Each structure stands twice: as C-alpha cells, then as structure tokens.
C-alpha cells in the first residue's frame, strides 16, 4: 500500500481537484483506492457525494484503525472508497498536541489499511502544523500543486526549508504545475526556470480549465463528464507519472 498526500500550505491551488481526479484514475486502473478527506471544509467528500456521520469524532480518528473503518463509504465507482471529512477535523491539531509520539499517529492508523487498499490518497487542509507533520511522516509521496507564480514558488521554497529544518526526507516532495496558463509570460517563464532548478517536478502540468470548476456542479470527477477534454488527459497523465514512481513494476 502506498500513500499520496495532496498537500500545500497554500490555499486554493488544486489539492482537492488532484485528490479527486487521481483517486478516480487509480481506481479505474484497478488499484483499490481510499481517499481520506482530512480537510474540515469537506470538498472532496462533496465531489464524491458522501457525508460523515453527525457526531464529532476527531479524538477517535487517531486512536485506532478500527475507528476509521466504520466511517468509510463506498463511492459510486468500482475500487474507490472515501472517508469523508467531519467539521470536527478542524481540531486535529489540538488532538495531536496531546498525543504522545504524535508524528507517527497518522502512520499508525493508516498501517491498518495495508491489506484492503493499494493506494491511500490524503486530501489535506492548507496548513503547516502538527497535522501536516504527521502527514509528511505517513506519506510515501507528497504531491504539491504549484501555480507558476511568484507566491506559489515561495511556498514551495518554504516547504523545502521546513523539511531541511525538521530533517524530513525531501525526496518525498513531488511538485507539479497546476492551473497553468501558458499564454501568460510569467507562467511560461516560471515553469521553464523551476523545471531546471527542481528536477523533481513531474513532467505533466495541469492547465487552467473551466471544466475543473464544473466538477462542483456535477459533483463528479472529470473522467465522468469531461473525458474528451485536455484537462482530463492531463490529470490522467499525472496519475501515470505517479503510478510509475510508486508502482514501478506494474
Ligand atoms: N486546473 C484548474 N483550472 C481552473 N480552476 C481550477 C483548477 N484546479 C482547481 N480549480 C478551481 O480552483 C478552486 C480551488 O481548487 P481546489 O479546491 O482543488 O484547491 P485546494 O488547494 O484544495 O483548496 P483549499 O486549500 O481550499 O483546500 C476551485 O474552485 C476549483 O474548481
Ligand atoms: Mg482542498
């Protein structure tokens, strides 16, 4: 089982869009996939039309793997399950602060899914916190959407600095360009420069497209209503980049 975190401390950069579309592509390719919505905003739960039970359960989340099992819902697609977010997940940081060995908390509960799933995808909230620290430890790969602008570039630099300070494995950081508008000089120039500076950028970029916004109207991944569109192909290629990294033999 492999774990991908769709992560950036910057908000609105495409974490949820990537989590949803990659989960769909992985499931279509036959990988048993679990999408965990860690963001109390619950956007990926919304796209997959699943809701959490009413009762708050942020405390129970990190206690035992079996506590998570009863919250898992099957999505409308084969091989794909979703653990929906709950608004109480906004308290994850407080819960983790009280946990001994909190860095490993997420890793420990996810380990329990090894036999059931090939892939776990985490849709992460835009913070850098105790929760993100546990995400960095639990994930094999941290997929970071980067809009090719100055501020997003800065956020990526800060993430690398954070990993250096905390002695976390930098090779887990896997950036890709998101919401690309190549006709903008700044986007084209930034991409060219960053591809050289950071060879770890995935080759596939995701173009800016109104179809991604339409996912909210349809409440479906792109593959279900825009499979002929370039943005769908881009997400599908992004999945292939990740598959080749995480499952090289397949
Ligand atoms: N490639 C794209 N082209 C155009 N719009 C996009 C694209 N990707 C995402 N969006 C839109 O941008 C907004 C933010 O995207 P998304 O929710 O995926 O970002 P996020 O990083 O998960 O945000 P948050 O930090 O709030 O969780 C949404 O309205 C989404 O529809
Ligand atoms: Mg999001």
UniProtKB/TrEMBL annotation:
InterPro entries found in the cross-reference section: AAA_dom (IPR025669), DNA_Partitioning_ATPase (IPR050678), P-loop_NTPase (IPR027417)
Under the heading Gene3D superfamilies, the entry gives:
P-loop containing nucleotide triphosphate hydrolases
SUPFAM superfamilies xref list: P-loop containing nucleoside triphosphate hydrolases
Q: Transmembrane segments in this chain: where?
A: none
| Protein origin, superkingdom | Bacteria
Which stretches make up the AAA domain?
1-165
Per its record, how is this protein called by name?
AAA family ATPase
Q: Which organism is it from?
A: Catenovulum sediminis
């Amino acid at each position: 089982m492999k774990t991908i975190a769709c992560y950036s401390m910057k908000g609105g950069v495409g974490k949820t869009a990537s989590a949803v579309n990659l989960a769909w592509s992985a499931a279509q390719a036959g990988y048993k996939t679990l999408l965990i919505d860690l963001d109390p905003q619950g956007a990926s739960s919304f796209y997959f039309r699943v809701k959490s039970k009413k009762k708050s359960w942020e405390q129970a989340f990190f206690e035992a793997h079996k506590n998570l099992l009863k919250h898992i819902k099957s999505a409308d697609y084969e091989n794909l399950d979703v653990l929906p977010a709950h608004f109480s997940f906004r308290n994850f940081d407080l819960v983790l602060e009280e946990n001994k060995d909190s860095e490993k908390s997420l890793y420990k509960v996810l380990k329990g899914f090894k036999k059931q799933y090939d892939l776990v995808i985490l849709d992460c909230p835009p913070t850098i916190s105790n929760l993100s620290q546990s995400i960095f430890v639990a994930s094999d790969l941290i997929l970071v959407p980067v809009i090719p602008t100055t501020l997003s570039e800065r956020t990526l630099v800060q993430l690398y600095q954070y990993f250096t300070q905390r002695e976390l494995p930098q090779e887990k950081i896997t950036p890709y360009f998101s919401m690309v508008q190549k006709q903008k000089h700044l986007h084209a120039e930034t991409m060219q420069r960053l591809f050289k500076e950071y060879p770890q950028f995935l080759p596939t970029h995701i173009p800016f497209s109104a179809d991604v916004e339409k996912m909210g109207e349809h409440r479906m991944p792109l593959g279900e209503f825009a499979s002929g569109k370039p943005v769908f192909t881009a997400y599908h290629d992004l999945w292939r980049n990740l598959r080749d990294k995480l499952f090289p033999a397949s």
